[in-house]
Write a structure and sequence with these properties.
Length: about 325
Amino acid sequence: MTNTPKFSLEALTVLEAVARHSSFAKAASELHKVPSAISYSVAQLEASLGFQLFDRTGRVIKLTPMGADFLIEARRLLRSVTDMEQRLAQLCAGWEAELRIAVDTVFGVQSLYSLLPAFDALCSGTRLQLREEAFGGCWDALEADRADIVIAGLGAGGVPPGGGYSVCPLGAIAFDYVVAPVHPLAALAEQVGRPLTDAEVRLHRAVSVADSSRYRPPRTIGILSGQNTLTVSTMDDKLAAQLQGFGAGFMPRHLAQPEMKRGGLVRLDVEQPRPEAVFCLAWRRDTLGKSGHWWVEQFETRTEAASAFFALFDRPA
C-alpha cells in the first residue's frame, strides 16, 4: 500500500513565498494568485502535517519553531527539484550529466585547470570528473568505461582494440635523468666525467610511479633489472621523493627543469637515456555529448584556452 504524500511541490512553493515575504498578499502577488488561495493552501498544508507553520496572532505573520524547521527541508527539496529540472533540460539539449577525463600523471589534472574558466562559461551543467592515471592506466580506464576522454602515452599499451575510439596526437615530452645534489650519483657523475653506466646506476634506488591499470598488465619504465625501487602513486610524489634524495630516476622535463634552475635537482648523463614519450588525446566516439566535443575541440585546434597545457611540450633542453 502506497502512502499518499502530505504535501505537493506547489504547496511548498507557496510556503516558501509566504515565509520570505511574511505576507499572504505579497506571496499571492509573486505567484499570480489571489490572497485567499494562498491562505487556503497554507491552511491545507498545516492540516495535512498536523502542526501550525505560521503564527498569525500579530500584525505580521511569522514562522512557528516547527514551521521554521520544516521550511529548511522544504527549501532543500525545492532546490533539488529545480536542479533536476535544469539538468534534464541540459540533457535534452545534448549536454552530458557527467564527463570523465583521465590524465596521465606526467601532466596531472592541474594541467587542465586553465581550461575550466572557458568551460564554465558554457553553463553546460555537466559535472566534471578529472582523474590521474599512470602508464597504461588511462587506456585501461577508457577501455573499462571509467573515462570518456583520456590524455595518454601512445607507448603505454595503446588504443584499446575493437574500434569505437578516436585519437588526436598532442606532442612529445622529453625526460631527464635527475637526482638531488646530495645524492651519491651526483658526486660520481662529477668524478667520472662521462655518462653513468647501467652498472653504476643499478647500485642506487630508483623512484618509480606505479602503473594504475586495473586490468592491463602493469608496466615500468627506466628501472634496471635487479634495481631497488621506491614506488609511489603519482609523478608529483616521485618528484618530491627525488628532491629529498630518496632515489633517482627520469622526470618529465617540464617538471624537472624548474627544480634544476632552483638547484634542487641536477641532470645526469646516463648510458641509456629515456626517449621522448608521445602523447595523444583519445575518446569514446559513442558517448560524447556537447561537453565532451568541446574538450576535444580545445586540443584538436589548440585553442588559446589550451595554450598552458601545450606549453608543457615546448620546454627547451
